Amino acid sequence: MASLIEPPNKVRPKGKHYYTMGQTLFEIDTKYVPIKPIGRGAYGVVCSSINRETNEKVAIKKIGNVFENRIDALRTLRELKLLRHIRHENVIALKDVMIPIHMTSFKDVYLVYELMDTDLHQIIKSSQPLSSDHCKYFIFQLLRGLKYLHSANILHRDLKPGNLLVNANCDLKICDFGLARTSRGHGQFMTEYVVTRWYRAPELLLCCDNYGTSIDVWSVGCIFAEILGRKPIFPGTECLNQLKLIISVLGSLHESDLQFIDNPKARKFIKSLPYTRGTHFSCLYPQADPLAIDLLQRMLVFDPTKRITVTEALQHPYIGGLI
User: Fold this and answer.
1) Long-range Cβ pairs for the range 104-110 (8 Å, 24+)
2) Cystine design at 121: which of 162, 172, 267, 307 (Cβ 3.0–4.6 Å)?
3) 136 is in an annotated binding site
4) What is the pLDDT of residues 27-72, one digit of tens each?
5) Contact 111/80 with Cβ under 8 angstroms?
6) pLDDT of 187 higher than 90
């Protein structure tokens, strides 16, 4: 639980108060009353809180020593710049950014988001049964939020169950935009290693210079499969193992499936792998709706140019009736 404490230097700045949660000090605006810590990750500590002015429950994320690491600072800035302009019911809302006391010497950043109950990773690994309707509703909302992002030329680049927040009504919201960026079409060089490995598209694993919105669609396919099977479909231990796992399911590739690979060594590696027929998704997920299997196999296509788009996925019969 949160404990109200005296300021560390005994000087109480106007409009601020201090709380500790575990070993973490929170210096926050007095309109927010922390309740308890709800998460801790590589990029900060999150606590639930109440906004006394609106009586709204929110989540406050403290990113400590934000300037200590240049990459972490850029992630935070990227998320702030994007979320300032994003408004969609399937994307997490940034409610507030607390202004530091000393604008020239502050070290910590406090971001205020709408509060959700859990994330899809926690749901998948729990013993809670998931019906076909649950699965369909989660995928529909994920695609809907992603269509909004892609229509604004934003690639998320780090979609995974832990970055999909869910509340008690099964409403789903995409979060964590620290790796997101704008897409300006073909011909633009982009960094390869962005998405968490298990959800990383083949074109990223193969170090292709150009990629687009299809990388997010691959991640959705991996998440879709994980909901159906309650475990990751491609839990690779490193990059090459990840590729081998993908091909063990999809089967060996034709020459026409490799045209997008612009790295000769990468193409040679794929061709060197032993022949495999692969495993049909209906065998991996025998209880799944046949329409779910059809959509899944259109998402998990090795060649990004042949992969279904988000707009097309939302028009798929599996999603029918939800739009």
Assistant:
1) 107/64, 107/65, 107/66, 107/67, 107/68, 108/27, 108/62, 108/63, 108/64, 108/65, 108/66, 109/62, 109/63, 109/66, 109/76, 110/26, 110/27, 110/28, 110/60, 110/61, 110/62, 110/63
2) 162
3) no
4) 999 999 999 988 876 667 899 999 999 999 999 999 988 888 888 8
5) yes
6) no
Residue 303: active-site member: no
Q: What average pLDDT does the segment 200-218 reach?
A: 91
- Per DSSP bridges, beta strands 154-155 and 181-182 are antiparallel
Q: What is the pLDDT of residues 278-302, one digit of tens each?
A: 999 999 999 999 999 999 999 999 9
- Residue from 72, 119, 158, 176 carrying the catalytic annotation: 158
Q: What is the pLDDT of residue 13?
A: 83
Distance of CA 278 to the CA centre of its chain: 28
Closest CA to 51 of 75, 27, 33: 33
Give bridge partners of residue 96 from the DSSP assignment: 112
For 82, the token pair is 């994007």
- The β-bridge relationship of strands 44-51 and 32-41 is antiparallel
The tokens describing 130, both together, are 């998931």
Give, in order, the Cα–Cα distances in Å from 192 to each of 75, 79, 177, 196. 16, 19, 17, 11
- Specify the range with the lowest mean pLDDT, choosing from 72-76, 247-251, 273-277: 72-76
Cα–Cα distance between 97 and 29 in angstroms, integer? 10
Residue 92 tokens read as 């997490």
Residue located via tokens 């960094």 = 191
